[in-house]
């Protein structure tokens, strides 16, 4: 594994972490049947949501189109990383996006939808949205790619 590029190692780590958390929460804790589990009142609860669309359940296309789109984005990022070999933080950001995308693609293939369960709330606000580890990685990785590069693979 040491010979793999940093973005590849990060992608594998994120995809595996995402799937492990889903196995524990959705299956072992049986969230798919229970629906909601209070973790740390009033801030964090697990609320099962099957996302068939993109962020926040916004419908975009069927799952196979979304899988194809994720594959194209991942292939483009891999090509960019292999071509430019940017600095470590940029590669980690790229790996987060790829790993998150792979985690959500696995869900779409296995379940037909993405398993979302993290639901932070506070101070009387009942958050209607749930997300997962893959979503966090995609968001943080995209921010890293935006703020750590100048659009050409070099630090901005």
Quickly describe the structure.
The chain has 156 residues and is of the alpha+beta class.
Structure description:
The chain is 57% helix and 13% strand. It has 156 residues and is an alpha+beta fold. The chain has a domain at 6-35 and 61-112 and 133-148. A three-stranded antiparallel beta sheet has the order 1-2-3. A hairpin with a 3-residue loop joins β1 and β2 (44-51). α1 (6-28) runs parallel beside α4 (88-111), α3 (63-84) runs antiparallel to α4 (88-111) and α4 (88-111) packs antiparallel against α5 (133-148). The relative contact order is 0.20.
Roughly how many Å apart are the termini?
Answer: 29 Å
* Sheet with the most strands: spatial strand order: 1-2-3
The chain-level structural class is alpha+beta
Helices, by number, come to 5
Strand and helix order: HHEEHHEH
Q: Give the helix level as a range of percent.
A: 55-70%
What share of the residues does DSSP label as strand, in percent? Answer: 5-15%
* Overall mean pLDDT: 89
Label this structure with key terms:
single chain; 156 residues; alpha+beta; three-stranded antiparallel sheet; 3 strands
SSE inventory with pairings:
Layout: H1 6-28, H2 31-34, E1 36-40, E2 44-51, H3 63-84, H4 88-111, E3 114-120, H5 133-148
Antiparallel strand pairs: 1-2, 2-3
């Amino acid at each position: 594994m040491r010979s793999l590029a940093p973005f590849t190692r990060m992608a594998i780590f994120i995809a595996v972490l995402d799937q492990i958390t889903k196995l524990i929460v959705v299956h072992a804790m049986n969230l798919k049947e229970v629906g909601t589990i209070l973790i740390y009142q009033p801030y964090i609860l697990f609320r099962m949501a099957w996302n068939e669309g993109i962020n926040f359940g916004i419908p975009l296309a069927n799952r196979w189109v979304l899988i194809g789109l994720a594959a194209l984005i991942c292939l483009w990022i891999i090509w960019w990383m292999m071509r430019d070999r940017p600095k470590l933080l940029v590669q980690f950001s790229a790996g987060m996006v790829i790993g998150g995308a792979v985690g959500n693609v696995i869900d779409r293939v296995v379940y037909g939808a993405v398993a979302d369960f993290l639901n932070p709330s506070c101070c009387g606000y009942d958050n209607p949205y749930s997300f997962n580890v893959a979503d966090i990685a995609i968001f943080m990785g995209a921010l890293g790619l935006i703020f750590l590069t100048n659009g050409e693979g070099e630090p901005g």
